[in-house]
Amino acid sequence: MASGPIVAMVLSKENAIVEWRALIGPTNSLKAREEKPESIRARFGTDGQANAVHGSANPADARREVNFWFPNMIVDPVPTVEESNTYVTTYITPLLSKGLLELCKLKPENPIAWLGTWLLENNPNQPAATLK
């Protein structure tokens, strides 16, 4: 897989595998020159096997390869925009909206500190019992 020095890296974003593979082009550098002349493999690969760059083919391969090169790295899935929006809308927005409304009414001198304290005091996930 390597004929000289390499640089290993992990790319993380939504659709990272698909977008990276589009950027690097077809596996065979000769084919890449015909089909995607601006791709990395077309520009830097030398033939059908020495193609200059690797990209995982799918999420399972990516996880295996990341664990090989970076064994201590935590590999968590990146939430989709929809999952993130649902989480924020469900768990953050209701309480934060109440706090921001109160903040606007009171207009404290240090609004960030005030809001932080308000969120701590109004946290619906506070322990039901405290030790004294």
From TrEMBL:
Keywords: ATP-binding, Kinase, Nucleotide-binding, Transferase. GO terms for molecular function: kinase activity. Residues 1-76 form the Nucleoside diphosphate kinase-like domain. PROSITE patterns: NDPK_LIKE. Coiled coil: none annotated. Pfam families: Dpy-30, NDK. Belongs to the NDK family. PANTHER family: NUCLEOSIDE DIPHOSPHATE KINASE, NUCLEOSIDE DIPHOSPHATE KINASE DDB_G0292928-RELATED. This is Nucleoside diphosphate kinase. It comes from Blattamonas nauphoetae. The lineage of its organism: Eukaryota, Metamonada, Preaxostyla, Oxymonadida, Blattamonas.
